[in-house]
Amino acid sequence: MIQPERVEVLRAGSPAREGFVLLWVQSSVRTVGNHALEYAVGEARRLGVPLAAIFALNPAYPEANARHFQYLLEGLRDLRAGLGARGIPLSVRLGDPPGEVWQAARGASLVVTDRGYLRPGRQWRADLAARLDVPFVQVESDAVVPIRVVSAKQEFAARTLRPKLHRVLERFLVPVDVQEGAQGHPDWDPGLDVSDPALTVRALGVDNSVPPGEEEGGEVRALARLEHFVTRLLPGYDSGRRDPNVDGGSRLSAYLHYGHLSPLTAALAAREHSGGGPGLDAFLEEMIVRRELSFNFCEFNPAYDRYEGLPHWARENLEAHAADPRPHLYTREQLDAAATHDRYWNAAHREMVRTGRMHNAMRMYWGKKILEWSATPQEAYATTLWLNNRYQLDGRDANSYASVGWIFGLHDRPWARRPIFGTVRYLAASGLSRKFDAEAYARRWS
């Protein structure tokens, strides 16, 4: 079902029973568990008009490189096939997204889109709403619970968001009904060829300084990874996810970031394949509570991607200790080359550079050390975010902005005071060895 709280009218009006319905795919690049898609199919059928889809690819998207574009295009390849199997044509067009969609919407009776939480997408939707002369509807599908249903303000931490979310969770934790009977637009221009993502990336001429990671994107691989996780790894997820030397994590974050996998699909699959227990509880905490906490942060904090967006208490502490002696100082270039004295840190950075991901057991340590080894907290924040967004496949994501913020005190509380950090939480290398075989991890990525 599609709950009414998922639907927001961005430009009001009554759609005519002529022309066609245009689905602007932006955040939900999939056919399974896609409320925006099913809403558009239902509206096209109700109006008795064809349906067509568009994805506008912006080669100049901030901080995106060949690694990101290839993963995105692998998703578009699967999306074109999946929509085609339902008779819905997809056009992939190059250029400024609101401008391309506005051009494609000529003759449309209704435009439907999905919902994202970051500044570029919000601006694109606002720009298009101002230019359209037909109704424009946004349908939220990348959160299990629509974020403004849960809270109307920035939450302090997971402990303040969790009870609000759980009060309404069961009403939204239900499958989306698949709508049948859509008639595809007969003369829809397919636009860019996405059948060979690697070839298309080379043709785009984007920044190729970061090659693709080791995992392939797309809905097909996302659903296969989900099946592997819930049938084999979920029961031990609570403990297995803590050891970077074993494959105990879900490895779903990049698929979620690019919209290749629905969080609702993942949560329902986990429930179906689990009899409960700590593994399921831990997964749902990460998939729903922590993920939607990051959406809440980006939705209600306009400085979510800047140092100024950190909590006042944390910035006050870090700046009070900005003149404290640092045991080591490294430039951004030295860090990028993994040329530090710390073999654990170097290993974590190499894992990210080579694969496009970093195990969560190392990600916070990696970031805390950048803070410790930078001349100022402002420099540390900028360097951490730059490295994260450059290499991580799930970089430039609400989860990434919240995770980087956590390194500097976001969604956390004050701890014992110490040099450099003040009362912001500190992590030591000795803590790694108490949790897992840190030497084995360092050897693996040496």
Automatic annotation (TrEMBL):
<dbReference type="InterPro" id="IPR052219">
    <property type="entry name" value="Photolyase_Class-2"/>
</dbReference>
<protein>
    <recommendedName>
        <fullName>Deoxyribodipyrimidine photo-lyase</fullName>
        <ecNumber>4.1.99.3</ecNumber>
    </recommendedName>
</protein>
<keyword id="KW-0285">Flavoprotein</keyword>
<dbReference type="InterPro" id="IPR014729">
    <property type="entry name" value="Rossmann-like_a/b/a_fold"/>
</dbReference>
<dbReference type="GO" id="GO:0000719">
    <property type="term" value="P:photoreactive repair"/>
</dbReference>
<dbReference type="InterPro" id="IPR036155">
    <property type="entry name" value="Crypto/Photolyase_N_sf"/>
</dbReference>
<feature type="domain" description="Photolyase/cryptochrome alpha/beta">
    <location>
        <begin position="19"/>
        <end position="147"/>
    </location>
</feature>
<dbReference type="Pfam" id="PF00875">
    <property type="entry name" value="DNA_photolyase"/>
</dbReference>
<keyword id="KW-0274">FAD</keyword>
<keyword id="KW-0456">Lyase</keyword>
<comment type="similarity">
    <text>Belongs to the DNA photolyase class-2 family.</text>
</comment>
<dbReference type="InterPro" id="IPR006050">
    <property type="entry name" value="DNA_photolyase_N"/>
</dbReference>
<dbReference type="InterPro" id="IPR036134">
    <property type="entry name" value="Crypto/Photolyase_FAD-like_sf"/>
</dbReference>
<dbReference type="InterPro" id="IPR032673">
    <property type="entry name" value="DNA_photolyase_2_CS"/>
</dbReference>
<keyword id="KW-0227">DNA damage</keyword>
<keyword id="KW-0238">DNA-binding</keyword>
<dbReference type="GO" id="GO:0003904">
    <property type="term" value="F:deoxyribodipyrimidine photo-lyase activity"/>
</dbReference>
<keyword id="KW-0234">DNA repair</keyword>
<dbReference type="GO" id="GO:0003677">
    <property type="term" value="F:DNA binding"/>
</dbReference>
